[in-house]
Design brief:
Mean pLDDT: 85
CATH architecture of the largest domain: 3-Layer(aba) Sandwich
Pfam families: AAA_3, AAA_lid_2
GO molecular function: ATP binding; ATP hydrolysis activity
Strand order of the largest sheet: 1-3-6-9-2-10
Structural class: alpha/beta
CATH class of the largest domain: Alpha Beta
Protein name: ATPase associated with various cellular activities AAA_3
Radius of gyration: 20 Å
Low-confidence stretches: 1-12, 15-34
Distance between the termini: 45 Å
CATH superfamily of the largest domain: P-loop containing nucleotide triphosphate hydrolases
Shape: globular
Number of helices: 13
Helix content: 25-40%
Number of domains: 2
CATH topology of the largest domain: Rossmann fold
Organism: Kineococcus radiotolerans (strain ATCC BAA-149 / DSM 14245 / SRS30216)
Largest sheet: 6 strands, mixed
InterPro entries: ATPase_AAA-3, CbbQ/NirQ/NorQ/GpvN, ChlI/MoxR_AAA_lid, P-loop_NTPase
């Protein structure tokens, strides 16, 4: 339904937290326009991907594994769920990634009263034309940070679901294509569960990876404090790649060779989760496809033109764990909260590959 006035009051630019979305000034091109032409290939995709990791790490100190996992998911055209306590650097990770691309980043603070139109956009009355015009919401940005996604209602969560899966939104019966590239980085707090709406399995399955930043060492934390005091913030980063370059990287990732034996490994791992008595709902075919695509990205970061079995095995926990719905008798006690459930899922996923360690983030 159309409305007038300012739209999307809870969204803001990641790089300038005081700003808000106002439709008349929205800088993005018409979202329903023709798709952009294919980007020119990069001369050295691996060097470009590593430069992106290095660029983010200039601000996100001491968490290279998490940064690499974020970039891996993005190269695989996936979205990222970051689960950690407040103040751990989740927002900084997303904004530093966007800044390293010189890209716009929209931030949405999820709340119980957030409406789908607050994120997708809506029709706003235009007195000049005497009709309604579509004003894009914060989803129409290359990088979208959603803080505490599990605090918004299932109805609004479904709006994110369509955007993440189909890369478009439907408003008043009209479909609007989202920009390319399009990356959603959503966060949730594993400790505080009061007033939240747990993400359904269908939405969790849309996230390529779940990552946890974990604690910093004392030396790294001291360095972060010193650099923050000196003004080392995401908005000060110099872009190392542009959006066309990221699209070229994603195309290069899709071209990394995957042998039949590697596909068999991925299929075997996902099917194992469906037959495990500790799991009520295992990883599906989409999870297997994501596992292979992320393995392609990992191979590209390593400078290879083919996927090795260890690429797949190394990604089992971040790609599969959050998709596992544990059997009731294997669910952790509720007092442990979502953090305990995450750990139980990761232990189970790690058990699929002998010798795989659960990330030391707790």
């Amino acid at each position: 339904m159309g409305r007038s006035g300012d739209a999307h009051p809870r969204s803001l630019r990641c790089a300038s937290p005081g700003a808000d979305h106002r439709g008349v000034d929205h800088p993005l091109p018409e979202p329903s326009g023709a798709p952009a032409p294919a980007p020119a290939p990069l001369p050295d995709p691996t060097a470009a991907a590593r430069a992106l990791v290095d660029g983010v790490e200039r601000v996100v100190r001491g968490r290279r594994a998490a940064v690499e996992l974020l970039v891996t998911a993005v190269l695989a055209r996936g979205h990222v769920l970051v689960e950690d306590v407040p103040g751990s650097g989740k927002t900084t990770l997303a904004t530093a990634f966007a800044a390293s691309l010189g890209a716009e980043c929209s931030r949405v603070q999820a709340t119980a009263d957030l409406l789908p139109a607050d994120v997708t956009g809506s029709g706003v009355w235009d007195p000049a034309s005497g009709g309604f015009r579509f004003v894009p919401g914060p989803l129409f940005a290359p990088v979208v940070l959603v803080d505490e996604l599990n605090r918004t209602s299932p109805r609004t969560q479904s709006a994110f679901l369509e955007a993440m899966e189909e890369r478009r939104v439907t408003v008043d019966g009209v479909r609007h294509r989202l920009p390319e590239p399009f990356v959603v980085v959503a966060t949730q707090n594993p400790v505080e569960q009061h007033g939240t709406y747990p993400l359904p399995e269908g939405q969790l399955d849309r996230f390529a990876v779940r990552l946890v930043l974990g604690p910093l060492t004392a030396d790294v934390e001291r360095r972060v404090l010193r650099e923050q005091l000196a003004g080392n913030r995401p908005e000060t980063l110099t872009p190392v790649l542009d959006l066309a370059g990221l699209l070229a990287l994603q195309r290069a990732t899709a071209g990394v060779h995957v042998a039949d034996a590697t596909l068999d490994l991925a299929v075997g791992l996902t099917r194992a989760t469906r037959t495990d008595p500790r799991v009520r709902l295992g990883a599906g075919t989409r999870a297997g496809l994501t596992l292979v695509r992320c393995a392609q990205a990992r191979a590209l970061l390593a400078g290879r033109d083919h996927v090795l079995p260890e690429d797949v095995q190394a990604l089992v926990v971040p790609v599969l764990a959050h998709r596992l719905l544990l059997a009731e008798e294997h669910e952790p006690l509720e007092v442990g909260g979502a953090g305990s459930r995450t750990l139980a899922q990761e232990r189970l996923a790690a058990g699929l590959v002998p010798g795989t360690a659960v990330p030391l983030h707790r």
